[in-house]
Design goal:
This protein starts with a helix and ends in a 5-residue tail after the last strand. It has two domains: about 130 residues, Immunoglobulin-like (Sandwich), CATH 2.60.40.10; about 80 residues, Immunoglobulin-like (Sandwich), CATH 2.60.40.10. By secondary structure, it is mainly β. The protein has two helices and 17 strands. This is Molecular chaperone. It comes from Mixta hanseatica.
Length: about 230
């Protein structure tokens, strides 16, 4: 019995050790400006081990996206760094608002020489936001403050009148956090279950900017009439 427990503990330690290893992706999101044909993101291997790097882009509904990584598959040796080129293939996208995709970078470990070593491929998934050439290059705080809030049928509703994706770090209603805030799409409306039943009150939100930093808090009051 003790031998079995020791083997299980060893396996859990190996899983934890492997899951925290792998390459470092040089960013938490990719903002692709429509005036450009391509952009880049770095991948760094801080370990001595060898990794195979596989990269691809998909749409939120898991369909094909108009972007490709180059190279899509390559070997990254220990203590090395490489740059991935992300190329826009030219398929039409809405010119008046941002479009959201997912960039996937998978680190596949080299075959181990030792026996009985558990190895896990690690996939990093980050947002890829295509920003049309006609929009500002960066989203201003004034744009971020344009979100409008109201109470509707027991839920909190947020309206985004801007052409930008607003990625939430947090939303609080009367000091209580809303779970799974995620984002609200351009020119879209999203609803959240209220953490407490209140037809009116104060809402505070913080967003994640283009560089992955958290903004200062924005505040507004909400009611059944909205703003």
């Amino acid at each position: 019995m003790y031998k079995r427990m020791f083997s299980l503990l060893l396996m859990l330690m190996l899983v934890n050790s492997t899951a925290t290893a792998g390459v470092i992706v040089g960013g938490t999101r990719i903002i692709f400006h429509g005036a450009k044909k391509e952009t880049t993101i770095s991948v760094t291997n801080p370990d001595d081990s060898i990794w195979l790097i596989q990269s691809w882009v998909e749409s939120p509904d898991n369909n094909k996206a108009p972007f490709i990584f180059s190279p899509p598959l390559f070997r990254l040796d220990g203590q090395q760094k490489n740059v991935l080129r992300l190329i826009y293939t030219g398929a039409p996208l809405p010119p008046d608002r941002e479009s959201l995709f997912w960039a996937n970078i998978k680190s596949i470990p080299n075959a181990a020489d030792e026996e009985n070593i558990l190895q896990i491929a690690i996939k990093t998934q980050i947002k890829l936001i295509w920003r049309p050439a006609g929009l500002q290059k960066t989203v201003s705080l004034a744009e971020m403050n344009q979100l409008r809030w109201r109470w509707l049928s027991g839920k909190l509703q947020v309206s985004n009148p801007t052409p930008y994706y607003m990625n939430f770090h947090s939303i609080e209603v009367n000091g209580k956090a809303i779970a799974d805030a995620q984002w609200v799409a351009p020119f879209a409306v999203k609803e959240y279950a209220l953490p407490q039943l209140a037809r009116s009150g104060k809402v505070s939100w913080r967003l994640i900017n283009d560089y992955g930093a958290i903004t200062p808090p924005f505040t507004a009051t909400y009611s059944t009439q909205g703003q």
